[in-house]
Amino acid sequence: MSGFQTNNKVISWLDERLPIFSMMQHSAIDYPTPRNLNYWWNFGSLAAFVLVIMLLTGIFLVMNYSSHTSLAFDSVERIMRDVNYGWLIRYLHMNGASMFFILVYVHIFRNMYYGSYKAPREVLWWVGILIFLAMMATAFMGYVLPWGQMSFWGATVITNLFSAFPVVGQHIVTLLWGGFAVDNPTLNRFFSLHYLLPFVIVGLVVVHVWALHTVKSNNPLGVEMKGEADSIPFHPYYTIKDLFGIGLFLMFFLGFVFWAPNFFGEPDNYIPANPMVTPPHIVPEWYFLPFYAILRAVPDKLLGVLAMFAAIIVLFFLPWLDSSKVRSAKFRPIYRQFFWLFFANCIFLGYLGGKPAEGWYVPASQIATVYYFAHFLILLPLLGKVEKPKALPASISAAVLKEKA
Questions:
Q1: N- or C-end of the chain: fewer Cβ atoms within 10 A?
Q2: CA distance 63 to 68
Q3: Phi and psi dihedrals of 297, rounded to 5?
Q4: Is 70 a catalytic residue?
Q5: Are residues 74 and 56 part of one domain?
Q6: pLDDT tens for the 405 residues of the chain, in order
Q7: Which of 230, 266, 268, 285 is catalytic?
Q8: Where do the annotations place heme b b566 binding (predicted)?
Q9: Cα 188–chain centre separation
């Protein structure tokens, strides 16, 4: 924690007893960062920025929300119509969820492309997947709170999936519902957890950053820093780069908030929940669609649920499934082609998840699901053995200076 100096006696006195300023100096200013990071490394800080927006807007929304089945829908409408700038707060929160997932998905695929999950960053990768799981749980419960048609029926369908587990399944469903159907106890449970889980995400983000600063950042070349020539301090170089990224992102984000606020939403969710009327096509939010497609691709209910969960669990084993010693796809030409094929397959799964489970969509979902798992369980272990990577540079600085020359 060295390097912090000040002439202010009050700050110096406080820092000796609680080294907040020394920690900030060490972690946010002097922190050695690879000198060749590109703009794909902005998405982690952008996700943290959106998390703060989600927390702040969520706190203000809670002040005016009523978690009762007879009041929830109307309380959301009151926020939109009667609360000062309530429409803005809700649209920031609603679209912020989609922005959060967009940023995190880009962040995950960037890590997969550049091999940021490989040793010694396995725990860093694990914590990131835990953040992703906590985000999914938080988003699902938040989607139920407006208590529209899609909220009610989405909660009914997704919670019923747990009934597929033998012996304990029905007990889990009853615990989630707080009774024998999706009703007021369910809404209260989801409201409580939706308010709690974002703070769990904050805790996981702190651990994620802690792990990052322990093993240091990966970089586009995938080679470790070798001394001061390979690194630059985080501030001012990357703080300016992150601020520039935030400015560009805000134009994208606020474009949806002000001009297309319901772009990511479902029209049926503006109809109050009615247990007696089933929507013609029940779909989750767009960021769940690839996993929803995997769920429906398997004819057996239990196996479908297991496949859906396995699609995320397999990510925990990625550092060992990828047997290549080279991190970055920049030096792995065959892997790079399969990576983009995998990316396209995930987009295709998302498309199929939003379509009815009929016609050619069913066999297409099954083929895409098989390829999803084959990428991790067959292709990655095989590529590490048969692929011949390009020669790695001696160091980051050598590669940077060579490019400049």
A1: C
A2: 14
A3: -70, -25
A4: no
A5: yes
A6: 446 788 899 999 999 999 999 998 988 899 999 999 999 999 999 999 999 999 999 999 999 999 999 999 999 999 999 999 999 999 999 999 999 999 999 999 999 999 999 999 999 999 999 999 999 999 999 999 999 999 999 999 999 999 999 999 999 999 999 999 999 999 999 999 999 999 999 999 999 999 999 999 999 999 999 888 999 999 999 999 999 999 999 999 999 999 999 999 999 999 999 999 998 888 899 999 999 999 999 999 999 999 999 999 999 999 999 999 999 999 999 999 999 999 999 999 999 999 998 999 999 999 999 999 999 999 999 999 999 999 999 899 888 777 665
A7: 285
A8: 107, 208
A9: 25
Annotated binding site for a ubiquinone: 213
Residues 174 and 251 in one domain: yes
Q: Both tokens of residue 405?
A: 């020359």
Q: Are residues 367 and 273 in the same domain?
A: no
Query: Are 311 and 239 contained in the same domain?
Result: no
> Which entry of 22, 241, 301, 395 is annotated as an active-site residue?
241
Instruction: State yes or no: is 285 an active-site residue.
Output: yes
Residues flagged as binding site for heme b: 93, 107, 194, 208
**Residue ranges making up the domain that contains 56:** 38-221+233-282
Give catalytic status of residue 213 as yes or no: yes
* Distance separating alpha carbons of residues 216 and 33, to the nearest angstrom: 7
